[in-house]
Amino acid sequence: MADAATINVRPARVEDVPALCAFLNEIIRIGGTTAHETPFTHESFASHFLAGPGFVSCFVAEDDSGEPCAFQALERWDGLPEGWVDIGTFARAHEKVPGAGTALFAATKAQARDAGFLAINATIRADNIGGLAYYSKMGFVDYKIDKGVPLKDGRLIDRISKRYLLGG
């Protein structure tokens, strides 16, 4: 099994879309770990994660066989403070690769710094224990809670926002 030091991380490519879309849609279908509730088509995935108006970057981590096992995207949107960028991290639901998230964040953090951003925002569902733990492990700290954000089925779930300051 690869470790974070040997996991190959590279920019996402159009040819990655079927694999990345498939495992993101599986995560959506399983539920409980992403704010995304509507499955993506290949076209909507590409326009959201690889080329949308707020697109900054999207990196892929590969498993030992060279297949994508996780991805991490940065995007800008109007609700963020000036100089901030939003992050989303997704790993396939099965056969997770230990260290992939750490390797992805190293590449993403470097990209955000190089692009001149001041901070990275992560907003996580309060019931996503793994996601909350991951971002805390990467050095993100809580700064805001949005109480009772409704899901499509009407359930209310808090959203916890964490930030990573990129300073110096």
Q: Can you put this structure into words, describing what you see?
A:
This protein is α+β, with helices and mostly antiparallel strands. The protein has helices spanning 17-30, 42-49, 100-114, 129-137, and strands at 9-11, 55-62, 68-75, 84-91, 119-125, 141-150, 156-165. It has a seven-stranded mixed sheet with strand order 1-2-3-4-5-7-6, with helices on both faces. The protein is globular, with a radius of gyration of 15 Å. 28% of the residues are buried.
Structural key phrases:
globular, disordered N terminus, 168 residues, seven-stranded mixed beta sheet, 4 helices, alpha+beta, 7 strands, single chain
SSE map:
Blueprint: E1 9-11, H1 17-30, H2 42-49, E2 55-62, E3 68-75, E4 84-91, H3 100-114, E5 119-125, H4 129-137, E6 141-150, E7 156-165
Parallel strand pairs: 4-5
Antiparallel strand pairs: 1-2, 2-3, 3-4, 5-7, 6-7
Query: In percent terms, what proportion of residues is strand?
Result: 25-35%
Overall number of strands: 7
Q: Any idea what the shape is?
A: globular
Helix content estimate: 25-40%
Residue-averaged pLDDT: 89
Strand line-up across the major sheet:
1-2-3-4-5-7-6
Instruction: Give start-end ranges of low-pLDDT stretches.
Output: 1-5
Distance from first to last alpha carbon: 34 Å
Order of helices and strands: EHHEEEHEHEE
The computed structural class is alpha+beta
- Our Rg estimate from Cα atoms comes to 15 Å
* DSSP helical segment count: 4
- What can be said about the biggest beta sheet? 7 strands, mixed
